[in-house]
Amino acid sequence: MSADDQDAQVVNRTDFDTAVGWAIIGLALLALLAALAIARVFIVPVIMAFLLALVFSPLCRWFRRRGVPEPLSALLIVVSLLAALAVTSYTLALPATGWLEDAPSIAREAERKLRGFMGVAEAVTDAGREIEEAATGGDEAEDAPIEVVVAEEGPLTTIALDAPLIVAQTIFIMILMFFILASGSLFYERLVRVMPTMTEKKRALQIAYDIERDVSRYLLSITAINAGLGVAVGCAMALLGMPSPLAFGLLAFALNFVPFLGAIGGVVISFGVALVSLPTAFDAFVVAAVYFALTSIEGQLVTPWLVGRRLRLNTVVILIAVAFWAWLWSVMGMIMAVPLLVCFRVLCQHVEPLKPFGEFLAGKDD
Q1: Cβ-contact 266, 249 below 8 angstroms
Q2: How does pLDDT run across 15-32, given as a tens digit for each residue?
């Protein structure tokens, strides 16, 4: 066998080994994706608990430096979160329940108010129906089969069925977060112990502290921004004569944790409620426009200025991540999409082979 043939065999074997390696990686990723989807009921609360622990770990250390034991500070944080969650849920539950129960009458009222804007569309629809009846003959309608529609479960029934699981997951998140916070620096001590060399120990600690700092800074900044947006939306709704302005403020605060889609949902909800509650459809459009203007100011001016360039991410990547995690884990996935991106970006900054991915995730330079 000639040298050229041997070189060709080596190249072919190398290409084959590379293809096999990529195939194995692809299968492993598919298996991981399937595992994340199947075990979502368990994995989502665990990840949420760790993210919340990252946010409040600096606060626990601040209390510890002032003589407060970590279990006590963890308990205070968990109780405060539960109280805030209970107040928010109670404030939102009353108007939301009324809107869901009155959904048929709300739909009729909305249709009546929008009739003036939809006059042209109705005329076109009626003309098309008359042409179709003239072409097919009016007698065929009498012999047409009767369509039977099976009523599905209403939204209140769906919420009632999902409530036990939501409550159980919330309790599990709070309990796990309490034990993570109460353990203090135990995780970092174990991380240092398992690393074989001093260089790897330092790198592992640096990655852990950077992830904690960036995730904590991001979530605390976003929480403060969303609180300001909630106050602005609540005041605007009160000035515009909307019912339950406090509920709208809390709704804007909660929805804005979901990038892009949360603002769109808030605009749609505010428009629907205003359409029924206010005298004219024009008033409803004004309410929706004000809500959209406030969220636009927050998203285009306030958040970039307060969050800073270090934590800014590629907008396209954020949108793809939100859509992906929403498909995989529903609403909780949308909420955790950006914090998970922040964690991955910090990891990319410290691992040499992943640095190109970190540059891709970064936002536009100023």
Answers
A1: no
A2: 666 777 778 888 888 888
